[in-house]
Amino acid sequence: MRRFLTALLAAATLGAFGVVWSEEQAAAPADATSAPAAEAAAPAAAPMPTEALTLTGNAEAGAKIFAEGKGEAPPCMSCHGEKGLGDDNMGTPRLAGQGFVYLRKQLYEFAADRRTDTTMGVMNGIARALSDQDKADISAYEASVHEDALAAASNLEEIKAAGSVQVGEKHLGKGIVLYGIPGKNVPACSSCHQFNGRGALPVYPAIGGQRYVYLVNQLKKWKDGSRANDPLGQMRAVASKLSDEDIYNVAAYLTSAPPISVGNSRQPHQPEPAVAGAAH
Ligand code: HEC
Ligand code: HEC
């Protein structure tokens, strides 16, 4: 408990610790207060040095950084939760069980300002505080965590009651995940992200079992182009055809989408080796 409080304090000193429920806040363009890190560094032309691709991640070292922080980087768990399952009040994602290559890619892209954290304005600075080895270690740790795939499912009733983020209809979202919206040329999310969004690593991250508020935020960012680090513009193309209603519906279904179907007990979670991998 004590350690957790210290972690919270460390995050607070970053000066951006706050509750982000509201869509206005989440969608607001980065300004001096919401994204202090963005001014600091010039975007690097190559976000991931090729030598970094050869580094092997050490999950134990990653677990330590996750819980205690390192140097300028605060403990990740102060915002991503003790078990890395994310938090809807802060708009943070679940990291536990996500792919190694995908997580490491995001850390490099935050560090190079190719992706901007407009939700709390902290991730760009945090990623810059991590060395190449730290990035590999933390990604290896999170990829190795085997929590129940639905442990992070958001409590939609609570979010609805809080009233700052609209909550969609799961049954409408299910259709989009499995079949897309043929009339609008929206492909099925599962055609890239696998059954119920359980992930097709290394390129397509797990989106099933992800936090509701985070999913809504990211889909809106892909839609308005404020997140543009997707290979080949795949997500921007998909999200540009989604209405806000579609986004709420698809996120409502995905947050608690079971990763396997009835009668198919195949374990979908196959952690990637935390070693060299394609930087897609
Ligand atoms: C002060 C709060 C805070 C702390 C501390 C924090 N994060 Fe984050 N993190 C966030 C927020 C907010 C987002 C979502 C950004 C957005 O909406 O684009 C995020 C997003 C991420 C993502 C993107 C995940 C995805 O699915 O694309 C990664 C990876 C990540 N954080 C890793 C870390 C690591 C590693 C640490 C510790 C060294 C850490 N974070 C510490 C707030 C925090
Ligand atoms: C054509 C392939 C493709 C399709 C179809 C697709 N996606 Fe994606 N999606 C991607 C790729 C690639 C990424 C990873 C982007 C990156 O590397 O940052 C991604 C990332 C995401 C993320 C961000 C995950 C995170 O942790 O930050 C969300 C949310 C998402 N997709 C939702 C959806 C939804 C909802 C649908 C269906 C409406 C969908 N995607 C359909 C290719 C696709």
Given helix and strand content, the structural type is: mainly alpha
Order of helices and strands: HHHHHHHHHHHHHH
Helix count from the secondary structure assignment = 14
Give the bound compounds: heme C
What is the number of domains? 2
Largest sheet features: none
Can I get a quick summary?
This protein has 280 residues and is mainly α.
Description:
This protein is 42% helix and 0% strand. It is mainly α and 280 residues long. The protein folds into 2 domains: 2-144, Cytochrome Bc1 Complex, Chain D, domain 2, CATH 1.10.760.10; 156-255, Cytochrome Bc1 Complex, Chain D, domain 2 (Orthogonal Bundle), CATH 1.10.760.10. α4 crosses α8 (132-144), α6 packs antiparallel against α8 and α10 (170-179) packs across α14 (244-255). The longest helix has 13 residues, at 132-144. The radius of gyration is 18 Å and the shape is globular. The model is unreliable at 1-45 (pLDDT under 50). One heme C is lined by residues 11, 14, 17, 65, 73-74, 76, 78-80, 90-93, 95, 98, 103, 106-107, 117, 119-120, 122-123, 126, 130, 138, 217.
Keyword list:
Cytochrome Bc1 Complex, Chain D, domain 2, binds heme C, mainly alpha, 280 residues, globular, single chain
